[in-house]
Fold this sequence. Notes:
- By secondary structure, this protein is an alpha+beta fold.
- The chain is 22% helix and 21% strand.
- An eight-stranded antiparallel sheet has the order 2-3-4-6-5-10-11-9. It has a two-stranded parallel sheet with strand order 1-12.
- Strand 10 and strand 11 (210-215) form a beta hairpin.
Amino acid sequence: MREKKGTADDCDKVWPSRDEVVVQPALFGADKFNFTKVLDAERLVPHVALAIEPLASTTDGGAVSSVRRASYSVLVNKFPLAYLHVLLVASELRPQVLTRHDLYAAIDFVSHHTRELFVFFSSWSAGATVNHLHMQLYPRADVPLFTLAVEPEPEHTSSALGARYSVRDYPAAHHVYDVLDATSVARACADLAACIESNRPHNVLVTAERIYLFPRVRDPLLRQAARELYGQPPACLEFAGVFNAYDLETFEALNAERMRELMRMCTESLS
């Protein structure tokens, strides 16, 4: 927990109204703001080709087969919350919908390009404010969630759909998947697709070891309730245990119980 200079409105997050949906076609298009319009100086890595399918596929002869890749860019974040907090953006103009291909790209990035950062994603109505597919990169050191052990969800341990895990007694409803287990990653892809199909806002965090999915509730009254507790709606970092206060009053009012309540009131497990 730390104080961040500025106001909550400086980094205000979109919160669902009764009419908002996860997929926002009306807010998508080349005429809207998107990351293809940023200056060249803001492109830290203009092009990185990331695998958008499992890397472990092999030929009959045992050699690793080629995999499909897609282009992403690493961009400057105009509102960073920490050193190395930057954006990972699809080079192609696509809406803010995380597909299974993007999930595999995130795994590829944190597994083979850097293990010091993790990837996080906010769907529309769960923190996203730009409707161009983008994820964020953030230092994984000192993130409380990643220090906690996970245990299998009993009903999914031996499921043909793949294993799901969770952190015992964690205040935010969530599901965890093993990056090194292909069936568990496949389950993550299926659960992600289910969130999109059922219009459930969601937040996703990806490390080289695990995927964390936080399904969100859609009560529009939670925006005001969250502001009263925190000053702004929580998203990925808060669910990972990282809270940033934008004024001294909020900073001094934050305590462990208030943070736990924020996590509980904003998330809901999948069936």
